[in-house]
């Protein structure tokens, strides 16, 4: 059941990067349930095709494998959207990735990989979709998923740095592109129950249990709660809001226990 009008995104086209699984999949699903036509992309073709097949039960869903670190592959996604729909209304920058590590153990390759995906990739997709669709249309909406990193992100310094960059990029493009009737905002999820959590090793999973106890609402968030925040920012319900970050974290950004993150690696 949804509190939003079922036709909130009728005749609208949305691209969700990293839409194959987890939070991205939930966002794609929710947009489809509210009338949008959706394109999902991620790197691996087979699971992406499978996700698109399942999502197609809810409406029109197309897919294109794409590594967002390669702007020519991002251009190919724009080509597909142009051929299939001839327009784009909403870009959800959800693709990203990181691995837990103390900063001094992150080697050049690991550092560059995380910066490249989260910061460079998000920039490439935003620029390409703005040039190809939003600016010519004089309308567009960008919602970018980041993390809570306002107080740093011990244990994941690379993604904290990249996402802080993405948040600042969002503020810049929101101002540069307001004249084209483009809005750009971020959503910063806290600890969310998603398939992504299963990929972490045991100490991180123990940490997640502790974070739940620390949370003032005494729980983790749900993917639906993140998707509902995206829906708000992607829709005319937020038409006078741009350049902000909406925290979906049950208050963690105000008080989260940094010591737990620093101690994760038991040095
Ligand atoms: N999801 C995680 N990393 C990605 C990448 N580089 N391109 C597309 N989707 C991704």
Automatic annotation (TrEMBL):
It catalyses: (2E)-hexenoyl-CoA + NADPH + H(+) = hexanoyl-CoA + NADP(+); (2E)-dodecenoyl-CoA + NADPH + H(+) = dodecanoyl-CoA + NADP(+); (2E)-tetradecenoyl-CoA + NADPH + H(+) = tetradecanoyl-CoA + NADP(+); a (2E)-enoyl-CoA + NADPH + H(+) = a 2,3-saturated acyl-CoA + NADP(+). Pathway: Lipid metabolism. GO terms for molecular function: 2,4-dienoyl-CoA reductase (NADPH) activity. Coiled coil: none annotated. Its main location: other. It comes from the Bacteria. Keywords: Fatty acid biosynthesis, Fatty acid metabolism, Lipid biosynthesis, Lipid metabolism, NADP, Oxidoreductase, Peroxisome, Phosphoprotein. It is an enzyme of class 1 (oxidoreductase). InterPro entries: NAD(P)-bd_dom_sf, Peroxisomal_t2-enoyl-CoA_red, SDR_fam. It is found in: Peroxisome. Signal peptide: none annotated. The keyword NADP applies. The keyword Magnesium does not apply. Its EC number is 1.3.1.38. Interacts with PEX5, probably required to target it into peroxisomes. Participates in chain elongation of fatty acids. Catalyzes the reduction of trans-2-enoyl-CoAs of varying chain lengths from 6:1 to 16:1, having maximum activity with 10:1 CoA. Has no 2,4-dienoyl-CoA reductase activity. PANTHER family: PEROXISOMAL TRANS-2-ENOYL-COA REDUCTASE. This is Peroxisomal trans-2-enoyl-CoA reductase. The lineage of its organism: Bacteria, Pseudomonadati, Bacteroidota, Saprospiria, Saprospirales.
């Amino acid at each position: 059941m949804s509190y939003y009008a079922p036709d909130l995104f009728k005749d609208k086209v949305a691209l969700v990067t990293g839409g194959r699984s987890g939070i991205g999949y939930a966002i794609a699903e929710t947009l489809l349930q509210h009338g949008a036509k959706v394109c999902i992309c991620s790197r691996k073709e087979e699971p992406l095709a499978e996700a698109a097949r399942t999502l197609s039960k809810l409406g029109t869903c197309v897919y294109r494998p794409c590594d967002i670190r390669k702007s020519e592959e991002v251009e190919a996604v724009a080509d597909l959207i142009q051929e299939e729909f001839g327009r784009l209304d909403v870009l959800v920058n959800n693709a990203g990735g990181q691995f837990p590590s103390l900063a001094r153990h992150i080697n050049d390759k690991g550092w560059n990989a995380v910066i490249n995906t989260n910061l460079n990739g998000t920039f490439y997709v935003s620029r390409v979709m703005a040039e190809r669709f939003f600016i010519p249309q004089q309308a567009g909406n960008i919602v970018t998923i980041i993390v809570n990193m306002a107080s740093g992100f011990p244990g994941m310094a690379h993604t904290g740095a990249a996402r802080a960059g993405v948040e600042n990029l969002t503020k810049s493009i929101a101002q540069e592109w307001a004249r084209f009737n483009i809005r750009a905002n971020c959503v910063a999820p806290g600890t969310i129950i998603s398939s992504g959590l299963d990929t972490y090793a045991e100490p991180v999973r123990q940490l997640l249990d502790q974070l739940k106890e620390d949370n003032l609402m005494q729980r983790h968030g749900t993917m639906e709660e993140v998707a509902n925040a995206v829906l708000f920012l992607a829709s005319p319900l937020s038409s006078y809001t741009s350049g902000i970050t909406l925290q979906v974290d049950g208050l963690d950004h105000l008080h989260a226990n940094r010591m737990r993150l620093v101690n994760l690696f038991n040095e």
